[in-house]
Amino acid sequence: MIEVGEETGKRERALLVGLELLRDNRWDIDDLLAELSQLARTAGMAVVGSNVSRRLKPHPSTYIGTGKAEEIGQLCRDDDVAIILFNGDLSPAQLRNLQDATGVMVMDRTELILKIFAQRARTREGCLQIELAQLHFQLPRVAGAWTHLSRQKGGMKGTRDAGEKQVEMDRRIIRTRIHQLEKEVDVVQRQREAQRKRRNRTRIPVVSIIGYTNSGKSTLLNSLTDALVPAEDKLFATLDPITRKATLPSGRTVLFSDTVGFIRNLPHNLINAFRATLEEVREADLLIEVLDLSHRMVWKQKKAVEEVLKELKADEKPMIVALNKMDLVQDEFLLAEARSRLDGGVAISALKRTGLDDLLQAIDEQLDGPRRNYRLLIPQSRHDLISRLYKDGQVVRIDYHQNDIYVEVLTEERLLGDARKFLLEGEEGRMSRD
Fold this sequence. Notes:
Blueprint: E1 13-21, H1 26-42, E2 46-55, H2 66-79, E3 83-86, H3 92-102, E4 105-108, H4 109-120, H5 124-138, H6 147-151, H7 157-202, E5 206-211, H8 217-225, E6 242-247, E7 253-258, H9 268-273, H10 275-283, E8 286-292, H11 298-311, E9 319-324, H12 332-341, E10 346-347, H13 356-368, E11 372-379, H14 383-392, E12 394-400, E13 404-411, H15 427-433
Parallel strand pairs: 1-2, 1-3, 3-4, 5-7, 5-8, 8-9, 9-10
Antiparallel strand pairs: 6-7, 11-13, 12-13
């Protein structure tokens, strides 16, 4: 067993187990185990060590092989380990067989992430979504809770029937609850959609801060908006989306939104469950991807973020890459590589607040969008629209008539808002042709 630092206290003592296949890079395995260790600590566990099994392919029954499972079980008894954390995803059968072979509670990476999300969910929306993800995860694993009945007295028919009936009853209860939760999440999604429509009417651009978990997103939100969002050195410190208002150098008001962090191999059912929350990313006007340039696996982390964005159909959104934690980077080659690979990336330190002026300027330029001249005839009673056009665009001509005001304005189409209905004939067609 490889010791990774003894921890004391009353927290559950956890042993990490990884599987290294022939095609795997050992650095990747070490990094994934380090990430698993962070996840365990975030969940409140005390990590006492790690163990790596090397195989040609995963064992179909026990993932790491029966002999290795028994060996790890003995290590757990010797070290008073309460839980074994596997870096990979285990099938329901593998999970049951490993618990039988080791005599210790077993949890895979997906279940650990679900546990963390459950601990950190604060809003009703977050709690609904995590419960939904947990139930989808538990549904195929229900049978394992009742295998003891089939083993009693040699698996007599009566005990088998009792176990099967209980399994079917549990599955029915879970499916019913899933159906209820899906309806409640659908209500949340419609509420969020209504909020977005109200926000669109005010024409305040939304900038969504995304990135790998623990890359510095919450720290950046705090630095840009003087918010007081907790920025902990833990994975998934932010779960529920947080939105704060700020003013750009141009004077434009924007909303910055901090979202849940992404992670490699993010469980698919978790993405589905949190789709209502992650929809905020897809609907944003601009994305700021925060990269922790001090992390040795930064490019793999970036790839993981891109994969989640693709699944959300948000991979074509306008984006600025913030090269964070530049103050911790000593490798000049890495700096040069980052600037080469990420043309337009902005070097910052969210914690020390360096490079933020450049980032805000880049955001301003991205949000400017294509500006065109539009001609409108607005009723004199709608001075609110005139004020808005002055604020959001450049009024190049204005003439007052008896009941109307003729306006020519240089602005973005999306900023016309309610004034759109007063466009002169031919302007709508010109917009669609453009």
